[in-house]
Specification:
2 strands; two-stranded antiparallel ribbon; 10 helices; mainly alpha; 205 residues
Length: 205
Amino acid sequence: MTSTVKGEDGKARCFWCSATPEYIDYHDNEWGYPVDDDIRLFEKLTLESFQSGLSWRTILAKRDNFRKAFKHFDFKKVAKFTEKDVERLLQDEGIVRHRGKIEAAINNAKQACEMVKQEGSLAAFFWQFEPSAADLPEPQTVSTTDQSVLFSKTLKKRGWKFVGPTTVYAFMQAAGLVNDHAEGCVFRKKVAQARKQFKSPAPTA
């Protein structure tokens, strides 16, 4: 069983919640719940890209600033960013000022627009990579899976950047493509129920 920790409310949660109090609300109300809104999916994947090499606490603390800086992750608007916007963002102390990641976010916004034209929505494309129950590892025991490797390769072939297998798997965890809450976490059942009621937007064969 993956480690859990009891909070002040007596509820057992995934052990990583013990790192900082800021994680509690995110863990309880966002992490692992299935998402089919394209803007939210783009936000989650972009933030996971920015998180690479950093702690999620850093990103979570800056999330509101990221939303303001990137037009609330409306990828149609971000796709129109120019070099002037890159320079503006590099001066924005409220976000992670990494030129490669900033340029990748703008590039990925353009790719997202193309994906919507070709696939109908980001959700329809992304949810094709939801793994079957038989392919799921024990919760929180791996940082990549065969499915995240395939997902990553497919995105890269389509021109997306900063979407390696680890980043993509973290996104899959966050967006609910997998329920990676610890077996003893009380929110694992809540997420499982949300997933049960969720209608996957992925096209059926």
